[in-house]
Specification:
single chain; 443 residues; alpha/beta; D-Maltodextrin-Binding Protein, domain 2; five-stranded mixed sheet; 18 strands
């Protein structure tokens, strides 16, 4: 409306300028034409002003309805408390009933895709599911003003994870879905190198845990040497291209190191503290922080992932994925209900609520200001993860078949099909087959 008003006023001003520039013989005719133009302009200005007044009229009645929210079981009570605060602050939404149900981030996407209509109106999900959700029509594009706030207030990795084809489809909740090193400081004297960690574990008769047959953890080696494996998607979330350089010298160095680690007598394949025994060190995530504290006791310690020496004699920093929890809004036929859903999603992902959620259940915030709080800064596991995330890439969208393929690659090392002393040709053959198959998922 503002642009239209400016345009109309400029038209009137141009008419007056033309009148002033006319010769005496044309003045009468020009005056009449200009008078008609000014009259029409005045009418248009009045109509535009009326339109503008109507456009800015505040909505006070958002109607009635039911809004279903899915979150993980351990934050159901917390979410109910926050929604109560939201309702108290927004009496204009009093016609809506909010129901919170326990559906984990790992299950939410599958349930939504199975039946979008029956699914939640607002739901938390793991970021690697966003492409499937967009393709299924289960995510509404984040409203423009909310999108600006999300991009300004959250870290770049979280914003990237919530984006498909340049469009923001979700509200970031956390930046804590990555992995780093938990270790027993009475066993591991220096956590900075992988070789040192393994040597210390071997000397103490302790186990070193790393899940080498996981497409998520494997990337710590491959991305660390500079090998690439990402997928491009279109606006609908369809995979359009695989960008992979695993079948390369960098890939060979990474796979050789994985095989070397697996050959250690201290190596155990795994990434869950709850399943670890006689553990000296384990690569795991923040979700197991309390279990790691319980296991290591006074010797509990955390660190970023270590460096390792490749077969080429170079030193590499272990890398990997960074992951995030996101909050999505389902498309709605009722624009007023959609506005309420957007407002609640923005609130539940705000700085205030992210920090409160950290204090309640320990989820690491994606909000930049919340990350700077004293409480978050003092968290050993989150601090180790923050150190590690600077060396990782945000986990993008990957085809479901990629994960099972990566498991097969790791299994070939565990079974001894690929060994530390295998030839470079054997390593390259395995990686070429792997890369070719990965590329086929985007064709």
């Amino acid at each position: 409306m503002k642009k239209k008003l400016v345009s109309v006023l400029m038209t009137a001003a141009m008419g007056a300028t033309l009148l002033a520039g006319c010769g005496a013989q044309e003045a009468a005719q020009t005056a009449q034409e200009t008078a008609e133009t000014v009259a029409e302009t005045a009418t248009e200005v009045a109509e535009t002003a009326q339109d503008a007044a109507e456009a800015v009229e505040e909505i006070t009645d958002y109607g009635t309805g039911d809004i279903k929210v899915w979150v993980a079981d351990n934050v159901v009570d917390f979410t109910n408390e926050q929604i109560k605060a939201f309702q108290d602050a927004h009496p204009e939404f009093s016609g809506y009933t909010f129901t919170v149900e326990a559906v984990g981030e790992g299950d939410a996407a599958g349930n939504m895709i199975t039946d979008v209509e029956a699914g939640a109106d607002i739901y938390a999900f793991a970021q690697d599911q966003i492409a499937r959700l967009v393709t299924a029509g289960a995510l509404e594009v984040v409203e423009d003003s909310n999108a600006e706030a999300v991009k300004a207030q959250n870290d770049a990795g979280a914003v990237g994870a919530a984006t498909v084809g340049g469009t923001l489809y979700a509200y970031p909740l956390t930046s804590d879905n990555g992995y780093f090193l938990y270790y027993d400081k009475s066993v591991v004297t220096d956590p900075s190198t992988l070789e040192g960690i393994i040597a210390d574990c071997e000397a103490a008769g302790k186990n070193f845990y790393f899940e080498i047959n996981s497409g998520w953890y494997q990337t710590a080696f491959f991305f660390g040497t500079g090998a690439e494996l990402t997928y491009d998607t279109d606006d609908s979330g369809n995979f359009t291209k695989c960008n992979s350089t695993y079948a390369s010298d960098a890939g060979v160095v990474a796979l050789k190191k994985i095989a070397e680690v697996a050959s250690s007598k201290s190596f155990q394949n795994g990434s869950a503290v709850s399943n670890a025994t006689n553990c000296g060190a384990i690569v795991d995530g923040t979700w197991d922080a309390q279990a790691a504290k319980d296991m290591f006791g006074d010797n509990y310690a955390c660190a970023k992932l270590p460096t390792f020496e490749g077969a080429d004699g170079k030193t590499y920093q272990m890398s990997g994925f960074g992951g995030f929890k996101l909050l999505g809004v389902k498309p709605q036929e009722d624009d007023l209900k959609l506005a309420v859903c957007d407002a609640l999603a923005a609130f539940l992902s705000s700085e205030e609520v992210q920090l409160a959620r950290y204090n309640a259940v320990g989820w690491g915030p994606s909000n930049l200001n919340a990350q700077k709080s004293d409480a978050v800064q003092a968290d050993e596991a989150l601090s180790a993860l923050a150190d590690q995330l600077q060396y990782t890439i945000p986990q993008g969208q990957y085809p479901g078949d990629y994960w099972s393929l990566a498991t097969s690659l790791g299994d070939s090392v565990i079974s001894g099909e690929i060994k530390a002393d295998s030839s470079d040709e054997d390593f390259m053959k395995a990686l070429t087959d792997f890369q070719t198959t990965c590329e086929s998922y985007a064709q």
